[in-house]
Amino acid sequence: SCGCMASGVLPRAVAAGEEGVITVDMSLKGRSGHVEGTLLLSTEPASRGPYLLTVAVDIVEQVTVRPRTVVWDRNEPLSEKTVNLSITEPRATSVSRVECFSPVFEVSSVSESKPGAFDIAIRVKDTSRATGAVLKIKTVTGKSLDEHLVIAQVR
Fold this sequence. Notes:
By secondary structure, this protein is an all-beta fold. The protein has strands at about 5, 25, 35-40, 50-60, 65, 70, 80-85, 95-100, 105-115, 115-125, 130-140, 145-155. The chain has a 4-stranded antiparallel beta sheet with strand order 5-7-10-9, with no helix packed on it. It is elongated and about 75 Å long. The two termini are about 40 Å apart.
């Protein structure tokens, strides 16, 4: 039901009173919080089913980014704004790079304020016209590379 689950087929029929194992694979990439999925288990004779099985998992967000959007008003004095990135398991995850491909915004510094907590300073170079950009914060957990997006805009 969540679009993130697939189940295997039992290799043989399970007789009444016997036990069997159903393998369920959940794709959790990009998900956080409480995730539930359901499976429909069919039986024979059909008068004994089908049964609805619910699989639930609580996923702790490994990386949080706040705020997700930094805004300057038009003609506001040029200044820096800070984005905070927090890592749940700092020994397992690190910030590898912060990218901004706009000539109007730049990442002026990335500093670790305490283990697993980073302050990312973003500077605007021109507030005379409305514009925007996407900044990519890249983190590494083991062999997995993830991107966290922040929007910078002048409105």
